[in-house]
Amino acid sequence: MKEIKNRVAESKLITIDLEDYYPIGKRVVFDIKDWLFQEMILKEKDFREDVKNHDWSQYKDSFVALTCSVDAIIPSWAYLLITSQMAFYAKKVVIGNLNELETAIYQDIVSDLPLEELNGKPIIIKGCSKKPIPETAYVQLISRLVPIVKSVMFGEACSTVPLFKSKK
């Protein structure tokens, strides 16, 4: 009987799974509409009082998306004032929704990945994930990879889609 070889395990392919870098921490949407007069008008004195009296410790180790879900004009300083307090507790604060928050989180992660050891190597970017990896993270990753790697494929080792091959 002929020995069965696992060619995938024996290959020089390096798999990058962005799910492995998914940071632990609660994702929170902080909607400032509740701090607006009639959910329409920001009154500076009242707003500052709300910021002063809010329990910011509840955002410890969280990732926070600041938003206003009503159609109101919010001055930039309002988000800055909130962030000036939340920054002591939250891991990251952005203006936007949860998708924009995940995008910002992964922009940091992908830009900090040490890729030097991948120079000239064939790479698979793992595609299936159970965690919410934003599409922009994959785009940012391949943008960093193509100048240095031999090739890039997307998917699983058993069924990949070729994306890039260097021109030796």
Task: Note the main attributes of this structure.
30% helix; 168 residues; alpha/beta; four-stranded mixed sheet; three-stranded parallel sheet
The helix count comes to 5
Given as residue ranges, the uncertain stretches (5+ residues, pLDDT < 50) are: none
DSSP E strands, number: 7
Strand content: 15-25%
Order of helices and strands: HEEHEHEHEHEE
Q: What is the approximate shape?
A: elongated
Taking Cα atoms only, what radius of gyration do you get, to the nearest Å? Answer: 22 Å
* CA distance, first residue to last residue: 40 Å
Average pLDDT level: 92
Main sheet attributes: strand count, strand direction, barrel closure: 4 strands, mixed
How much helix is in the residues?
A: 25-40%
**In order across it, which strands form the biggest sheet?**
1-5-6-7
What structural class do the secondary elements suggest? Answer: alpha/beta
Architecture overview:
The protein is an alpha/beta fold. The chain has a domain at 27-102. The protein has helices spanning 7-10, 44-53, 76-86, 98-112, 135-145, and strands at 14-16, 27-31, 63-67, 92-95, 122-126, 151-156, 159-165. The strands form two sheets. A four-stranded mixed beta sheet has the order 1-5-6-7, with helices on one face. Strands 2-3-4 form a three-stranded parallel beta sheet, with helices on both faces. Helix 4 runs parallel beside helix 5. The longest helix has 15 residues, at 98-112. The model has no long low-confidence stretch (mean pLDDT 92).
